[in-house]
């Protein structure tokens, strides 16, 4: 079939339409069902006749030949348009065609009306069920008529204002008109044989793949696609696509009429953007904010997490407008929006909902303090001077905090309560944040006071490291110690980490405290090594958040001391193994690259497994005190509720399994929280490498620990496997007796 014929048929020309696979050829009342839309512009007359020659349907050329209205063709019989002298020939021809599945021919003359001159045609007819299909070719022949039609087609296609794109069954380009090539910035020959997907982005390819089956089933469709022009710019187009079939119903491809809707799309997008975003700052406006708030609240309810809404009002903004003018006021708003946005995570939403009013949605919070940290950061950045054409503008921020689901049931109520909390902050003196509920506000103020005290504590030298000795269970010697942070609070006395570490982390002070503790421990272990004349190690607890910071400063400090890095062991929590493998591995890799050793702390309390350990670079495994306490079966230790026999046997078996597998992985094992000589004996018998706990000594200041080590206070291993303190150990223990008093009620952890 000629390409032009295929194109002509696809837009309505050519011979009678083939029957689609799986469909009936019987006529019905739907448009095009009897005749097929592909015959509409055929270059010859096409007729579908009833058994009495009534014209059921005809195409444009057929209606023109008879001089009738195509839409009212059923009022006419084709026999009435046959010249009188050819009626007998027509009757014989029609009778033959009515019973013949193969085409029969007849030459005669048709007359549009009685008395009008006739014109010669060749009729070709065949039966189609109860009907007869007939084509009327002019005397000059079908080819000449087709050539005229093709010439008309070429003029239409070449001058068309829309793109015409023909594709084969594999969706490769077989024809485009000049307009289509121009729309994409290519020459026609550059597009031929190219797959349609070459001109689409990923989204368009996905849509095309999902809909190609519909097209092969003969279903025309209209759809919008985004194409990529040759210069990389986007072309939005609407495609009206019709499938093309051969005479046997086989799918040949498709023809699409392509309209450029880029301007329309841009106008729609601009209108949408104007309806949802603030023109000055580019932030979401109230409309978009409300939609996102409802969406995030649904997610928070589903995931059972907190959502915080911050209502931010600029204090003193009216004075900026009055003093500097509205243009500078606008500049300040733009900069304020940028600063507020910089305080947020990628998942947070900041919106401008009024003149100097902003809101921030903080979804997915596990701790209330996370919202406080953001509020404090916002207040801090708004306190910085604003450059207003060489002059400084000063404002502050009042922030109201409301939580979902505790403070409100729906979006409107949550916004209203955050607004009320903001006014409470203003009434409280401005330049601060306030919670919606009094209890939450009181707790926040307590945390705020504690954060301020923590920041001052380091400068006032209120922190101190206590050290708990760790003995080698084979030699009985004290070779290592764990550094434990203590805070000499001026009012509350000596505080253990459990009393302040969470607040230090939420207020952003933990990194500073951790760096101080690292340097202090490094100084101390260097002094001990010089005093003792032998190697000595100190282990330091660090959180995953601290390890994410720039730990290279630690290595620089160790180099400045000329201290071997292996003198320091970093204790990391077991939960580190549950972080994304790439992040955890990178943290541990940095530590090992510095020459530090790594211990996995409190093993058994998290959700990791021994099988995970082989993925990570770790030196020591520290068995959690809850398992060690169970070795005695004493329910007073670590809350173990099992019976004596079950507690002893089960926890001992678990400790033995951990020790055995850790050794097979090349790790040494430290048992924490050892409180009795019986526990020491069981751990030694199980092959444990190190132990620490109250049976050896409580955490004590550095000088007292050194006195214990220098007296030679090493536990004596008795013949029956029990471990007791020898005379030297008891003397050393007496030297640190004051530590028991000082550390009373403070966990060794």
UniProtKB/TrEMBL annotation:
Residue ranges occupied by any EAL domain in the UniProt entry: 447-713
SUPFAM superfamilies named among the record's database cross-references: EAL domain-like, Nucleotide cyclase, PYP-like sensor domain (PAS domain)
Signal sequence bounds: none
Segments forming domain PAS: 149-219
Transmembrane segments: none
Domain PAC per the UniProt entry, residue ranges: 221-273
Lineage: superkingdom: Bacteria
GGDEF domain location: 305-438
UniProt xrefs under NCBIfam families: GGDEF, sensory_box
Protein name stated in the entry: EAL domain-containing protein
Organism: Pseudoduganella plicata
